[in-house]
Amino acid sequence: MVFSKVLIDWYLKNKRELPWRKTSDPYHIWLSEIMLQQTRIEQGLPYYQRFISAFPSVFDLAAAPQEKVLKLWQGLGYYSRARNLHESAKYVAEELNGVFPGSYKELKELKGVGDYTAAAIASICYNEPVAVVDGNVYRVLSRFFDIETPINSTAGIKEFKALASELLDEKDPPSFNQALMEFGALQCKPRNPLCETCPLSSGCLALQKNKIKDLPVKLKKTKVIKRYFNYLVVYSQENKTLLQQRTGKGIWNGLYEFPLIETEKPVSEGAFPSEEKINEILGVQELSLQLHNKKPVVHKLSHQHIYTHFWWVKAESVGEEGIPVKNVKDYPVPVLIANFLEETALETYSL
Asked: What residues does the HhH-GPD domain cover (predicted)?
């Protein structure tokens, strides 16, 4: 059995019809690969279509304000991808006259483009014989060859890259790479893989040894920390509210949120954070507070779980920084805030 031939034959019969598979334009391939990092195709496809519609070329993306890019990205998560996407678009448009780098090595110089993305673009767009290794590839190779080296270890990354490179069909790198990834997504799935109809089953060591559920091996994740957020949803007599833009290297950089007071422990309605902190945000004035949700909204990120309470704050004024409540929906916000806005229909809400 020739591994690559079986895979490519399977791919040609079973591949999904996706818009970025109908082109070798590096802008389209780059955009799809960045979006699909840590994202399922079903979730990423509508975002890809909206981006292509809003930004038909790398010049359009480069010229867009970052807030518009983040707004279109809203809900897709891992927002550093969107910021890096925008920075790389500006670099390609302004420094390279809109022409994407033409090799794996050069592509890796783009912000936000790592080994996997560079390999995908180089092989699909330029037919460069460089292997792609993503989560699907790790799973297929670890099972077929019964490899127990942790896939998120330095040794594992090196071993699987070498194996994928050895197996690569150098005559048809784009088909092989896409076939291997698609095979992992549709056939050799994380749960309930379709072993009974698998064209590679006769040579699969994990299947022979009843180890399908044990592979791939992954080192334990970093300890998850708990954080406690209290958002002040301010409502003034002028029908205005407050939003603040997050900055720095933490989560959601560049997105907007209601004024935030973070505490070490959860707070109850009768034990709200100090009046001093509220005055720092809103100034000294007569206020009324009302807890929106007694049970915290839990928002889970890869290394932290955020327990959130929303507090309605009725204020006389929010000052010059206030924005009309009806305009809140125009700002890019974390999905945690977006869900709250959808649930409460803020523009029609009254205290």
From this structure: 35-186
